[in-house]
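This section describes the prediction task in plain terms. A model, or a person checking by hand, is given the sequence of a single protein chain and must write out its three-dimensional structure as a string of tokens. No templates, partner chains or ligands are provided. The sample shown here is typical of the held-out split.
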Amino acid sequence: MPKFFIESGINEDMEIVGGDAVHILKSLRMSVGDRLTICDGSGSDAECEIYEAGRDYLKLKVLSRSLSLSEPNIEVNLYQCLPKGDKFDGVVRKSVELGVHSVTPVISSRVISRPDQKALAKKAERWNKISREAAGQSGRGIVPMVREALSFDLAVKEASLSDKDECILNIFFYECGGKPMSELNLAGIKTINIFIGPEGGYSPAEAKTAENAGFFTATLGSRILRTETAPVAALSVIMYITGNMG
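The expected answer:
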């Protein structure tokens, strides 16, 4: 059943207008009497029925409510070094599908793409739209946020501060080696922050910074993965070993 997010919260009678309404009515060819799922973005779902529809709006009545069952039992935040071109679009889309909680673009020393603040703000708007679409398509209970870009040092500092909580684990994926994921001890871990490097990889100095900050340095195997492939692999492994996949 198609799922859509509504910012106004779930009420007995709801109205969807604009782009989502046009998509539902035109692209999905839904009409009065058809059912769809509405989510409040905070983990609550409602099965609804269309009882009125116009050119660019539709009205819904709630048939039943339930908690979303699609959210993983662990919070994974992705710190992804910014790749060239539109690759970050795919990173956001696939990460949301796999269950990521948030995505933060990171500017490390070897990042080639360095848009200014105005360009980054425009990109962030698009990335959050992609996140919303992917969350609906994959049946998520929340819309993961794509946050403002951070420098590598600030990203490490932010994750290090959160690491004071024993329930949080920081993982630094390093192409030059590290411990296999099978050695992870996730007992009691509720939040994982994962760091993925750019096309040119992390510098030795950045690897040292992560090590000094107490990060778990990990490898995804003997093959060198592209920067847009690595987060997909990392999230898949984490979701599998935490019982959120398969």
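For orientation: The first helix runs from residue 19 to 27.
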